[in-house]
Design brief:
Layout: E1 2-5, E2 14-17, E3 27-37, H1 39-46, E4 61-69, E5 81-84, E6 87-88, E7 109-111, E8 115-116, E9 123-127, E10 131-133, H2 140-160, E11 167-171, H3 175-186, E12 190-195, H4 200-206, E13 211-214, H5 220-226, E14 233-238, H6 243-252, E15 253-261, H7 273-278, E16 282-285, H8 291-302, E17 310-315, H9 319-328, E18 334-338
Parallel strand pairs: 7-8, 11-12, 11-14, 12-13, 14-15, 15-16, 17-18
Antiparallel strand pairs: 1-2, 3-4, 3-9, 3-18, 4-5, 5-10, 6-7
The structure holds zinc ion.
């Protein structure tokens, strides 16, 4: 099969022919139709965060058709339209047994990220339990981005414990931020979107934000207080995770407010114990999501409750161009690779 593989960190991917994966007894073979690309792919390219053994096939937002199934597989069939849940979890640790499998302590790999090759290739082999059905009327690209952008947004909003009528500030209106904005609006929250480029304003409003703050032009914390009778936001969801966004996030919170951290970078931000304690602030981390979050997210897309955020499609042969486009920061909406 054709695959775009990572041979060296910091170098472009290499398009080449590699052997087709062969499904084991409990596996399915998925023919990739669309694979999303996102910031995790850039981190992989740079060797930051996850560092898979090279050469490696990236791609963790996979939508495709089941091409073959192992002999023990009875509930998934050749021809099924599917998307892939990426975490290869153990199924028996305390987290797997308490509905938080994305925190599995025996994680065997993450499809397209670590140990398990992903969707930048024409075929991908995964255990049958990893696949989730994709309804016929959901476009491949919209299904694919559920695997990370959608799932992560869904789970982050769940973690935020946001309630109807609250003000939520969402920092970083890329793919995850756009879906979060849509979900938060639907959940009856007052949504303040924050980004560092004026051209993101229209995109944020298109996705349902009530208002937009350009962090290069205004002091985010002050602007949020002005809009909340001086109190601050009930909740800030930081999809970026830089020192500046974490600072803005903490400072924009009202007393008792919650900072939900989705994105991360190598940056550190020193949070004052006094500020945390005296204001009873809450810090909440959130990692991707559970398999059930993915199912729920696909249902919302199928129902039309989440609108498409995919705006650019590149063939696999142009994977490096697509990744450069993503890195440029100029893309409004998500970028996907098409393989079929
Ligand atoms: Zn586990």
């Amino acid at each position: 099969m054709k695959a775009a593989r990572l041979h060296a960190f910091g170098q472009p991917l290499v398009l080449e022919d590699v052997p087709d994966p062969v499904p084991g007894a409990d596996d399915v073979l998925v023919q990739t139709h669309v694979c999303g690309i996102d910031g995790t792919d850039l981190k992989l390219l740079d060797g930051f965060g996850y560092t898979p053994e090279l050469p490696f096939v990236m791609g963790h937002e996979i939508a495709g058709v089941v091409a073959d199934v192992g002999r023990n597989v009875s509930d998934v069939h050749a021809g099924d339209r599917v998307i892939v849940y990426n975490f290869l979890v153990c199924g028996h640790c305390p987290y797997c047994l308490t509905y938080r499998e994305q925190l599995c302590v025996n994680m065997r790999g993450v499809v397209g990220v670590l140990k398990a090759p992903g969707g930048y290739g024409e075929f991908v082999r995964v255990p049958a339990r990893q696949v989730v059905c994709l309804p016929d009327h959901v476009a491949w690209a919209d299904g694919a981005i559920c695997c990370d952008a959608g799932l992560t947004a869904f789970h982050a909003l769940d973690r935020s414990q946001a309630r109807i009528g609250e003000t939520v500030v969402i920092i970083g209106i890329g793919g995850v931020g756009a879906v979060l904005t849509q979900l938060a609006r639907r959940a009856g929250l007052h949504v303040v979107a924050v980004d560092h480029a004026a051209e993101r304003e229209a995109w944020a409003l298109e996705n349902g934000a009530h208002e937009f703050l350009d962090s290069t032009r205004v002091n985010v914390a002050d602007a949020v207080r002005e809009r909340t009778h001086g109190l601050g936001a009930d909740c800030v969801i930081d999809v970026v995770g830089k020192e500046t966004t974490l600072r803005d996030g903490v400072n924009a919170l009202r007393r008792g407010g919650r900072l939900v951290v989705v994105g991360y970078t190598p940056d550190l931000y020193p949070i004052s114990g006094k500020q945390l304690a005296q204001n009873e602030l809450e810090l909440i981390g959130t990692r991707a999501g559970r398999r059930q979050d993915l199912r729920a997210c696909v249902e919302l897309v199928a129902d039309g409750a989440i609108q498409s955020i995919v705006r650019y499609q590149y063939p696999l042969e142009q994977a490096n161009v697509a990744l450069d486009h993503l890195r440029s920061g100029t893309a409004l909406g998500r970028i996907v690779l098409t393989l079929k």
